[in-house]
Structures are given as C-alpha cells and as structure tokens.
Design a protein that fits this description.
single chain
C-alpha cells in the first residue's frame, strides 16, 4: 500500500505538476483526494495554489478549448461536458468557448471530420450514410443544427478543394 502524503508533500508535488501543465481546481482536488488529502486541508492547498497563480480555472478553460479544437477536433458540446466534469464553472466555460473558438476553424474542423468519415462510405450517400455521418459528428460534440446545415452541402465537405 502506498504511503499517504503529508499536506506539505502533496502541496509541493501538486505545485510541480501545475508548473509543468494546466490543471483545474477540480482536477487538483481529485488528485489530492487520491493522495489521501481531503476536506479543509485539500481546499487550503488548492486555494494557496490559486493565490500563487499555479492554478487558474479561466486560464485552464481557455487552454483546454484551444487544445481540443486544434488538436482533437472536438465540438462545443463535448468540450463543455468535459470541462464541467473537471469542475469548471459554467461562466468560465461559456467565456472560453466564446472567445477561443474561431467559427471558420470550427466549421473547417467539422468539414474535415465529415470528409474523413465519408471516405469510408460508398460514393453515393444515401439516408443511412447521412445518418451515420450525423451520429459521427454528434459524437465529436458538434451541434446537430450545424451538422445538418453542412450535410446537404456535399461539395463543401465531401471533397478536398483543389489548391
């Protein structure tokens, strides 16, 4: 069985982790819980790291949105759910989604995801194929209305533009 950390050891370890990458306050509390630090001691450690700017939920939310849009190709719905699970407040999620997502890039990501999935399907898209594309894009977290707008525009998403 692992030795539980003292609050000072846990704070130092968490400080090192936060210096290397972004962590939300919810993630920090969860990590402390796993290390055996709970209750007031955990809250005090997290508050100290917030005061010292090792943890900043707004900064985390912005970085999370940028990374998930740019590298993972996630949609707003999936990003929102993931951040809520990490304990980010709704206002910070809304702010990060609004300010960090460029609509042109967002639509381009959706189009590329649809192109990629369509390559695995028959040349002529019937209603079953379109339903699969809709479910696929929805599983990536894109809004059904946006997906439905893009699906009929087959030339937009099915084939890559000639450069």
């Amino acid at each position: 069985m692992k030795k539980e950390l003292t609050p000072d050891e846990a704070r130092a370890r968490l400080m090192d982790l936060c210096a290397c990458g972004e962590y939300s306050s919810g993630e920090a509390l969860e990590r402390l819980r796993k290390w055996g630090i709970r209750g007031a001691a955990a809250i005090e450690i997290v508050q100290r790291l917030i005061d010292e700017r090792f943890i900043d939920d707004e900064r985390f939310a912005r970085a999370f949105v940028r990374a998930k849009v740019a590298y993972s190709g996630w949609g707003r719905i999936k990003i929102r759910a993931a951040m809520a699970q990490k304990g980010i407040e709704r206002e910070l999620i809304d702010l990060a989604l609004e300010e960090e997502i460029d609509d042109e890039t967002y639509c381009s990501n959706l189009a590329e995801a649809l192109r990629s999935k369509a390559r695995t399907m028959p040349e002529v898209l019937d209603s079953d194929c379109r339903a699969k594309l809709l479910r696929f894009a929805a599983s990536r977290g894109y809004e059904p209305g946006l997906i439905m707008e893009m699906l009929p525009e087959e030339d937009f998403w099915r084939y890559e533009a000639d450069d």
